[in-house]
Recover the amino acids of this structure.
């Protein structure tokens, strides 16, 4: 039986094709899974994604992959009262950050549009996917274990009749074509995604 080195590519530069594949897979898969797929370390996946400004999708974030679980040990256990960081660089009361945005502000994260709905929390708490907001205005809160997906695959088509509730497992199957199909089919799907992104970018450039 052939043994595959899990870090077989860790010292090699990233190829253009692997970077394209990482761009497609990063929003929907854990860094640990990606490390195994690409034969690189967890840190390599994380740092490469940060350099290319890749983020997890709202569907992936909805699974709470980094949630603190009962029995885990907090990183700052036993450090009560410890003053970490310089006081000189801290925000003063009433100070407004230079990158502050008002409620209603929208931004793109991993290809999805998010809208600011609150103040004072983390980015994940303050911003919600627009498709979730549209759905909840009509039908109420999204049930646990479900996400709001686009029927036609266009994540800028927010008409209520284009939105549907699906399970996370169903969404995972939709986004895991790289492991469900032979390499040649996965490559075609990957190339189609790359072409679609280039078309969208060209449309945005023409509109601006």
């Amino acid at each position: 039986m052939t043994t595959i080195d899990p870090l077989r590519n860790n010292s090699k530069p990233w190829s253009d094709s692997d970077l394209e594949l990482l761009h497609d897979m990063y929003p929907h898969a854990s860094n640990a899974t990606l490390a195994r797929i690409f034969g690189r370390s967890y840190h390599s996946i994380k740092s490469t994604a940060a350099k290319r400004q890749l983020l997890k999708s709202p569907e992936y974030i909805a699974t709470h992959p980094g949630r603190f679980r009962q029995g885990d040990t907090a990183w700052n256990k036993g450090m009560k009262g410890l003053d970490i960081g310089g006081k000189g660089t801290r925000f003063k009361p009433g100070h407004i950050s230079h990158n502050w945005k008002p409620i209603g502000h929208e931004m793109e994260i991993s290809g999805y549009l998010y809208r600011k709905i609150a103040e004072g929390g983390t980015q994940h708490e303050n911003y919600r996917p627009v498709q979730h907001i549209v759905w909840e205005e009509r039908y109420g809160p999204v049930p646990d274990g479900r996400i709001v997906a686009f029927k036609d695959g266009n994540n800028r088509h927010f008409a209520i009749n284009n939105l549907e509730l699906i399970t996370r497992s169903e969404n995972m199957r939709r986004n895991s074509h790289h492991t469900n199909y032979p390499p040649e089919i996965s490559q075609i799907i990957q190339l189609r995604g790359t072409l679609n992104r280039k078309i969208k970018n060209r449309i945005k450039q023409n509109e601006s």
Notes: The chain has a mean pLDDT of 78. Residues 47 and 53 are 10 Å apart (CA to CA). The radius of gyration is 20 Å. Residues 176-208 form one domain.
